[in-house]
Structures are given as C-alpha cells and as structure tokens.
Amino acid sequence: MTLGNYLEDFTVGAVYQHPLGRTISEADNTWFTLLTMNTNQNHFNAHFAASAPYGRLIVNSGLSVAVVLGLSVSDMSQHAIMNLGWEEIRLTAPVFVGDTLYAESIVLETRPSASRPYAGIVTCRTRGLNQDGDEVMSWRRSVMVYRRDAPHDKSHFPVAKTGPLTV
C-alpha cells in the first residue's frame, strides 16, 4: 500500500477532504506558544485573555497553520521533495482551545519540473475548517513532488537482520 499521491495522480480541480481532524488542547497551545517564544498572553494567560475581545484563550496561529498543513500532507505532499512556497495566507476566524480543525485542498495546477525530470510541481489551495464548518484559514501552496517512477523515495525501509516476520 502506498500512502499519498505522486505527480501523475493529481488532476486540476480535484478536491481532497483530508481524512483526519485534530482537536487543539490547551496543552498543545501552551507548549507550542512557549516553545516558539511567543510572549502574547492571549495564548497562555486565561486571566489576561478574559479581558480581550474574545474573552478567552486564542490558539497560536502558528500552531493552527501547522496543524492544517499537517492534516493535508497525506494527500498533497506525502511524496514531496520540498515546499516551494505559500502565498495568500489568510487567517479568517479565530481558533480556540477545544476546536477541532479539518483541512481540504483543491489542485490548481500541475506541471513537470524543468530542472528535475523525476519530479513536478503541484499548486493547491488549502483551507482549514473548524468543527462547525467555519473557514478559519486558507492559503495557496506550491510543492515539488516525486513522479511515480522516481527512485528516491523507494526501498528506504530497513531489512530486519533477524529475517522476515512469520506466523
């Protein structure tokens, strides 16, 4: 079984509703915020956030973006060589502790790589939705992915020194 799509698998206009959702916990938000040295108290000080316009902790947007990106990997970039860029990043609604994020993407363009014959470039629009169906973010992303016959991502699983698994 092969997880993910190669260049030849993508069709312009195809929509992927990525299979997993991810609920953001207070621990996720606090750890990410402190790990990244973000000192905005709206992310980790409930007393402070209570007096802000939303009246509660807001999930760090870096975490929200990273989760939605991660949710899209299984379909859009499992066989990526590298991300080439993000454009038009929009944070359209706040994400709160306890929200569950989902992601969906539409393929906008595909083309062979001019410099790497074993790869091509896929451009997509991805959006993140919360559990209520509200769009909380979107962006346009270009990623270089392998062609199906590229040797680079094959045969990387190690051979067990004790032999194959048996019944």
Automatic annotation (TrEMBL):
Question: What InterPro entries does this protein's entry cite?
Answer: HotDog_dom_sf, MC_hydratase, MCH/BMMD
Pfam families for this protein: MC_hydratase
Its protein name is: (R)-specific enoyl-CoA hydratase RipB/Ich
Gene name as annotated:
ripB
